[in-house]
Amino acid sequence: MRVLNIPDAHLGARRYGKNKRWDTIVYDAAFNTFSSIISQAIDPFGVDAITVSGDMLDKISVDDAGWMRLLTEVERLRKAGIQLVILGGNHDSVKSYDRVGGVDALNALSNVTVINGFIPEVVTVGNVPNSYFQVGGIPHCKSQNEFQRFVNEWNTKVNILLLHASVGDYSQSTRMGPNNLWLTVDQLARLKAYADFIVVGHEHSQRDILENVWQVGATMPFAFSELGTKWLVLMDTITKGAEKYAITQSLTWTDLEFEFSSRDDLAVRLAGRPQSVTDVVRMNVFNVPAEHYGLSKLMCNMAQNATPGVFLCDLHRVGDLEVKDISNESVKFDLTVELEEHCKKTKASQEDTDALKTYIEDAINQYVNEED
Known about the structure:
By secondary structure, the chain is α/β, with parallel strands linked by helices. It has nine helices and 16 strands. The strands form three sheets. Strands 5, 6, 7, 8, 9, 10 and 11 form a seven-stranded mixed β-sheet that branches. A six-stranded mixed β-sheet has the order 4-3-2-1-12-13, covered by helices on one side. The protein has a three-stranded parallel β-sheet with strand order 14-15-16.
């Protein structure tokens, strides 16, 4: 049987709490990428089943709109005769025994099986000779000790084993906690004797650990530290072969870095930034002199407001501005002139220009009053 694994999808993810527009872009991208994968699974892959190696949801549930989008995708799978096996991850597992999470609620659907009960489980998918396979899973656990015990005691032969943890020796690490379980490569090597394939979710980077043992990453980047090609793993439980396929992304992530040379140069770079609604751009500007920092920051803020996609601009200042024997009026005049020149270059509206001038004048007056 042909089985496609979907890595951490984090449906419902919101990453920019201070900017609802940016939040919506990332939120939609996670669902759109998931929907595109479901389409591939149906055609051209023509899979018999899908596994999810944890963190299908970003939290224990999603909002009503997200829930309907998820149910729509599950119904598409049902109509195509595709079974869905979901492992609970650290993001979408409840942390107590008396609550039900979103992935657990999906267990009521005819084509969905959820492994998310704090203990290992083996499920059989299909019931026709030569047309079934077994999936084992160790879901997110309430403690590292529990997880380690389950890993070390596993001795059941399955076709696919699903895990959700970091891979490495973190025994001395203070970074690891209840939400960051871990196991070692040696432990995976022992488990390999009991599984044709082992799929490990949780970490968003991807790597081949052993033959047919993968750390599968995520469906899309959720931070600039996670850039790079994202992969789907398609497994054949009959031939015991596997293939990887790149996931088509709905967002384009661009990371820009450069040294500050002048405000004119910064204006040119800001004007040339990617500006599509599907662009996520981070601009790091280093060594910005203190005397240029204020207006440079203002230029970046105006660019952010005018960008339909996600635009992050980080200015790294050097030095401190020393102000001596300067009057309120001269400060106001200098900054006003600079602002007007900048607004002309960036073709800002008169309404925006007037609002910014008022803001600067109020800030200067407040500062002078505090100094007096």
